[in-house]
Write a sequence for this structure.
């Protein structure tokens, strides 16, 4: 994993999550802004997938368990699709809040992924 | 864009359970995330540690159990009808009891839930250890919010 990229991902996910929460709580339906923010988070995660595949080949191997890492990454990749699909099916303010919750969960998962890759307690 | 005029003939004709879940959807997505998280983690723990570390079987089993409970609760919140409504109450009550009992035991008798220290993933214990501190206390707060929401939906379920 590349540290600055993980920081960027977490920052964008937190920003997108907060944006969607605020938009949703103020009553706006999912729109270009909220869906675009979630799409950006998804694109960054796809970049992370690419990095995770390439990094071990160039000598940046995970110190933790790679299976656990990919479980987090795959679930994180699925979340925007799940929340986005739901937002398109039922378009009201709560769908926007759901998008925000998904982004914040992704932020936590990226932090956890970074820990699995780099920091080992034992 | 102004909203399209609503047809009064269509709206009341919808069965009660079909109505938009509104704020409940936020609850459901949090449950879904926790269900996926707890279950995939348990599957990974079983595959990686079950046979190698018999001492870690209790926390692993509890992880798996909590995963199943969260999946059931997610489905029950999504599904319609009285039976699912009851399942939702049962699973969410079980969660609250689980997080309180396991949370307390994990602080009073930490040794029984901790896996071998050499296995960091299992050493953290279960979703419910220390009242769910590893999951931002969401496992402690969620069942309470779930119960409040179920209670507010009681009238809708009764008429449907």
């Amino acid at each position: 994993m590349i540290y600055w990229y993980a920081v960027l991902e977490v920052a964008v996910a937190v920003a997108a999550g907060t944006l969607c929460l605020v938009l949703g709580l103020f009553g706006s339906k999912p729109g270009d802004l909220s869906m675009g923010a979630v799409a950006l988070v998804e694109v960054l995660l796809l970049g992370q997938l690419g990095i995770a595949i390439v990094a071990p080949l160039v000598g940046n191997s995970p110190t933790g368990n790679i299976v656990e890492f990919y479980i987090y990454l795959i679930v994180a990749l699925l979340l925007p699709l799940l929340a986005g699909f739901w937002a398109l099916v039922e378009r009201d303010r709560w769908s926007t809040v759901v998008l925000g919750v998904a982004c914040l969960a992704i932020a936590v998962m990226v932090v956890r992924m970074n820990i699995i890759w780099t920091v080992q307690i034992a | 864009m102004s909203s399209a005029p609503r047809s009064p003939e269509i709206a009341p004709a919808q069965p009660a359970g079909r109505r938009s879940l509104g704020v409940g959807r936020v609850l459901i997505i949090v449950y879904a995330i926790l269900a996926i998280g707890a279950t995939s983690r348990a599957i990974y723990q079983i595959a990686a540690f079950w046979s190698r570390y018999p001492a870690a079987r209790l926390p692993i089993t509890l992880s798996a159990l909590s995963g199943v409970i969260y999946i059931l609760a997610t489905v029950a919140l999504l599904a319609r009808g009285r039976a699912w409504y009851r399942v939702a109450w049962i699973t969410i009550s079980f969660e609250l009891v689980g997080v309180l009992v396991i949370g307390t035991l994990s602080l009073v008798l930490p040794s029984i839930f901790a896996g071998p220290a050499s296995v960091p993933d299992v050493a953290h214990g279960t979703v419910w250890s220390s009242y769910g501190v590893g999951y931002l206390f969401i496992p402690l707060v969620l069942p309470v919010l779930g119960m409040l929401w179920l209670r507010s939906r009681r009238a809708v379920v009764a008429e449907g």
